[in-house]
Structures are given as structure tokens and as C-alpha cells.
């Protein structure tokens, strides 16, 4: 059970202990609906710290319970989920987790400085990327991991969903595996093709762009249907980090805005992609 699930269970326990209905609790806290209370208690939504404090007040939590609840909430704002060494197929399992997150978001914004984002990858590119994984069980799970990533891409064609990507030029030139020169042109062509979808925005940060932000890692902002349902994920080598803290989310949103000002879009981005593809295209013998 993760910190978010522990927080949800404790909040639900306090409400039950106080003998309050979800509606009465929502009225006492203010700014919450009964359905939002239900989603918080199910672990489907994250309350803000002030809402947790009001929850403790309304349910009559003791000082000790209140301190424990606030510590739990602070830990839940930034969760670290280590990839399990005992998990036989970690890469495939991660694809299901990510697809669930994407399905619940109104908009998904991805910054990637190192490789083509997973939602834009061709099957062969994805296979090469997964083949580089050092996680135990990754080799055995490679076919299902690739299939899971390809299945996730169906969401790009749903008009009621929005996807935005910012990709460093260096990420587009990265060569995963020995056959990279052969697979890169097709991969770059796919990125250019997907950039023409109405609900997909793809910006490229050129190597020579004046820096307006410094970011050393990829991140994804999942914008929920409610303002406090937004969260950020970061993929590290050993674990996935999920950020719910509002101040930290605001920092990532400001960083995204700065990166977007460095990027080129539309025909200019597609021209950059075409130039890169031409330089790496292997002549047919």
C-alpha cells in the first residue's frame, strides 16, 4: 500500500469514527463535493493540505491523530515507487500503470530531454529502448512491454483528450541500439506525422535555443478534470516519483512554460525533423 492509499484509508477511518456521511463532511470542509470526498477516500483524488487540516477539524481528530494525519499527507504529496526486483515483468507492468494515469487526465504534457517520448515511439524504437533496461526480468517481458506501449498510443486518436510534448533536439538524435541509423528516419517521420493531429502539440527545443530553464530529467504533468487532481511524475532509474504537492506542481508548470518558449512548433518543427531524418537516412543498397 502506498502513502496515498494509507492517507485515504486514514481519512475514511476518521470520518467513520465521527459518524459523518460524505455529504456532511463535504459541507463541513467547504469547497468539496460528496463525490470528491468519495474519490479521496478511494485513493482516486488527492486532497490539499488545508483540506486535510479541515478534515481533521470536522471529524474531531485528537492532537496525536492530527499530527499523524498531516505527516502522512506530506509524505503522500511526493511518493517514490521503487521498481520491484521480484517483479518478473516490470516494464510491462509500468505500461499498465501509465495507461491508467493517462486515461484519467484531461491533458498530458510530456517533457523529454533524452529520448523520443513513449507515446510517440515506433514499435522498433520502443523495442530497442526496452532492450537497454537493466531491471531484472526486463528481457523476458520485452514483447509485452512493447505491446503495452503500442496500446497506449491509441489514446492519441481520441479527440476529447489533449497531449502536449516538448522534446530536446538531442533526444531526437539519440541512437538506441546498433540499428539506430535504420530505425531513426521512420521514428522521426512518425513524430512529424503525429504533430499534425488536432489534439496533439509537439514542440522541439533546438540545440541552439537560448536557455530559459534548466531541467536535467524528463517529467510528465497530468492535468486532471479538477484543479487539485493535477500531478507530476518523474522516471528515475530505480523508481517512479509522483508529486502531488501544489507548490512543486506549480514549479513544474512554470518550467514547462519556459521550455515551451524555447521550442519551435508546427511547420518549423517538422522542417527540423525532416532535416534530422535526411542526415541519418541510410541509402538503399
Automatic annotation (TrEMBL):
<dbReference type="InterPro" id="IPR010982">
    <property type="entry name" value="Lambda_DNA-bd_dom_sf"/>
</dbReference>
<protein>
    <submittedName>
        <fullName>Helix-turn-helix transcriptional regulator</fullName>
    </submittedName>
</protein>
<dbReference type="InterPro" id="IPR001387">
    <property type="entry name" value="Cro/C1-type_HTH"/>
</dbReference>
<feature type="domain" description="HTH cro/C1-type">
    <location>
        <begin position="11"/>
        <end position="66"/>
    </location>
</feature>
<dbReference type="Pfam" id="PF19054">
    <property type="entry name" value="DUF5753"/>
</dbReference>
<dbReference type="Pfam" id="PF13560">
    <property type="entry name" value="HTH_31"/>
</dbReference>
<dbReference type="InterPro" id="IPR043917">
    <property type="entry name" value="DUF5753"/>
</dbReference>
Amino acid at each position: 500500500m502506498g502513502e496515498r492509499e494509507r492517507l485515504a484509508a486514514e481519512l475514511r477511518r476518521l470520518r467513520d469514527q465521527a459518524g459523518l456521511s460524505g455529504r456532511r463532511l463535504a459541507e463541513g470542509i467547504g469547497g468539496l463535493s460528496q463525490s470528491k470526498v468519495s474519490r479521496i477516500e478511494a485513493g482516486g483524488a488527492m486532497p490539499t493540505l488545508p483540506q486535510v487540516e479541515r478534515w481533521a477539524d470536522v471529524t474531531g481528530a485528537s492532537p496525536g491523530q492530527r499530527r499523524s494525519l498531516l505527516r502522512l499527507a506530506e509524505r503522500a504529496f511526493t511518493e517514490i515507487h521503487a521498481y520491484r526486483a521480484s517483479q518478473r515483468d516490470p516494464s510491462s507492468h509500468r505500461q499498465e500503470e501509465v495507461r491508467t494515469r493517462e486515461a484519467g487526465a484531461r491533458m498530458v504534457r510530456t517533457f523529454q530531454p533524452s529520448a523520443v517520448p513513449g507515446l510517440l515511439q515506433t514499435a522498433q524504437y520502443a523495442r530497442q529502448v526496452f532492450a537497454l533496461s537493466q531491471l531484472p526480468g526486463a528481457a523476458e517481458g520485452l514483447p509485452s512491454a512493447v505491446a503495452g506501449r503500442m496500446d497506449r498510443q491509441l489514446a492519441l486518436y481520441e479527440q476529447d483528450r489533449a497531449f502536449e510534448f516538448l522534446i530536446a533536439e538531442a533526444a531526437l538524435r539519440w541512437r538506441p541500439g546498433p540499428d539506430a541509423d535504420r530505425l531513426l528516419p521512420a521514428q522521426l517521420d512518425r513524430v512529424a506525422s503525429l504533430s499534425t493531429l488536432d489534439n496533439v502539440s509537439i514542440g522541439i527545443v533546438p540545440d541552439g535555443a537560448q536557455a530559459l530553464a534548466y531541467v536535467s530529467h524528463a517529467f510528465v504533468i497530468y492535468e486532471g478534470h479538477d484543479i487539485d487532481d493535477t500531478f507530476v511524475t518523474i522516471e528515475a532509474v530505480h523508481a517512479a516519483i509522483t508529486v502531488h504537492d501544489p507548490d512543486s506542481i506549480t514549479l513544474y508548470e512554470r518550467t514547462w512554460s519556459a521550455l515551451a518558449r524555447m521550442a519551435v512548433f508546427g511547420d518549423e518543427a517538422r522542417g527540423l525533423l525532416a532535416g534530422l531524418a535526411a542526415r541519418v537516412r541510410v541509402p538503399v543498397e
